[in-house]
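Complex record, two chains
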Amino acid sequence: MNAMTVLQQWSRERSVLAAALAPRAVAVALGSHRTVSGIRWHDAFVVTAAEALAGRDEVMVVSDRGETRGSVIACDLATDVAVLRTADPEPYDAAGAGPDAAVDPTLEAGADVIIVGRAPAGPLMGFGTVRLAGPAWRSRRGGAIAQRLEFDAALDGRFEGALVADFAGNAQAMLVSGPRGQLLGIPVQTVHRIAATVQQHGYLPRPYLGLRLQGLWLDEATRSRWGRTSRGLAAVAGVEAASPAEAAGLAPGDLLEAIDGVTIDDVEGFAAQLAQSLPGSALELRLRRGGQSQTVQIKVGEWRRPGR
Amino acid sequence: MNLIVQRGSARLTAREREVLGLVAAGISNKGIARELQVSPNTVKFHIAAILEKLDAATRAEAVVAALRRGELTL
């Protein structure tokens, strides 16, 4: 009997890895023809790409154990993370599988990854390379993402929401599509931040201040007079009645410079920073009013649907 | 003379702002329809008009564009 060649060995190990990870992926059916993928996260919860759901609140979820109904219980467009609750009677335990344990981003540029999705007909597997592994960033969607991850891989739309794992089988990210067909990864840390909040509250509580903002660009003279390095900031355009912003004494014309010590350069920056805080917490806003810099404390409220 | 409405330049109507506020909060089309007591198709129609006006390809882009223009409350 011939010993396996290195290539055969390599191929064999890839299929073993694929088989081990396959049960984590589900197919999310969006109507009769289109499906995307999702990741079994914990218990009966599945995460998938928020934008792909296009406003749906019920989907069919197909896993290796059959088909169940999935209800969309959170849809965070900024990070592109949606959380579904399935009717799967057998809770999924992610302990040891990675997502709940992973704390630090470990992917580096050039590393190989396996991308695990599912179609109704069976598991979908793809292999790719980490094209870029950068620091934490704010996506064009306005979400605060723990690490910038871009991949190089030949994948179709059914992989949207798929699991990206390293060759040790550790979950690293959820695959989503970015602008111009880029393949982006939402790191497990960010997915976990959303999923854990949903698990704790049963939904995703949304922070609310009652502020309407507009971006302002500062000229160089003003920037140097105010000791700012960033070109822009967010100006208060409106304050809602009986809102946390009103209670904190904010008024139209106030210029927001920083939130909890993090410099704000534009409205999306403010929104991304706010989105990371929970209702009930307090934020420190540094603002400029009448040319003077001052600090105010603001208690974060919770966004409610109108009439509730 | 032709009058051309430039993509991404028109203001949202009050109704569209209302719809986009609910989209931003992650409410589903059906949830928005219930909230506003209209049909889900009307909601989809509003969302298509919003994407057109804000020159956005996705819901998330529309939300960011509206935030920037001071048309959404945080």
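Note: Chain B has four helices and no strands.
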